[in-house]
Fold:
Amino acid sequence: MEPGTSHGHTAAGHRKLPRSLKELTPTKAFNPRTFFREMVWKALITRRTGEHQQPKFPKLDHGQLALTWIGHASFLVQFNDLNALIDPNFANWLFFLKRLRRSGLKISDLPPIDLVLLTHAHFDHFHKPSLRKLPHPKLGVMPWGMAPLAKGLGFSRIIELKWWESFSHGDWKVTLTPCKHWGARTITDKHRGYGGFVLEHQGRTVYHAGDSAYFEGFKEIGSRLAPEIALLPIGAYYPESFRKVHMGPDEAVKVFREVKAKWFVPMHYGTFKLSFEEMDEPPRWLRDLARRDQLTPHLRIMQEGVAEVF
Ligand SMILES: [Zn+2]
Ligand SMILES: [Zn+2]
Structure:
């Protein structure tokens, strides 16, 4: 999300806060009071819903894949010999933004994690306190310019990739894909990369698009990597100016067609209020669009914490 956010720890160990509410938003088009009312206050007076689920991880055969949505952009991807987390975030608060749906799993209920994929450094995706608590040891794969942020978080090895570069280990392979977004965590670190990932293993292919606006590049991701399962963001698209860096369900449906995936799993909605659309609008609108376009059999709207086998 949000440009110009600052998070993390300075050398002195103090947590840096955004300088103003305005810096948390991808637009300068509205005033801080409106921002506070829409994003902070409305969330504060809303009751947090959802439950941490009892962890039930299916026993998988070779070639089977289980997905568990933790909430927001966070997923656990499991094979019979690999556990990967993407953008793990278990926070109840991001500064003053309240989490509105409980994480589907507790960190303490996670299986040992072999691989962590981090799409970019925005604090809703790269959440240092969550990363620090993950069961070690773990390999971290992330876009260029992010490794210094990941130091000291317990990774046994950190790999940086550029767009279209891959990293293989054993018989799995991960490729960093392009997107239309940005990677700076604070105002001064515009050098940091951003992207999505395609993870290939045991003949299965899962694509996590990261954060992205709609752009032409999705077609190329489809033709080069042919993902089978597409995890696509559908929230944070209103007001219109947010679509420079995010997409709505309408554009996500277009992306789903262009990457030519079989399964559409929506994400990046319902957990944190990062924009002005109503919290329940993205999945509702997506269901309507899927019905209109006869995509319903391909749509897998997941419940947080409940593993689904693909
Ligand atoms: Zn985001
Ligand atoms: Zn972002």
Remarks:
- Confidence is low (pLDDT under 50) at residues 1-23.
- The radius of gyration is 18 Å.
- Residues 32-44 form the longest helix (13 residues).
- The chain is about 15% helix and 20% strand.
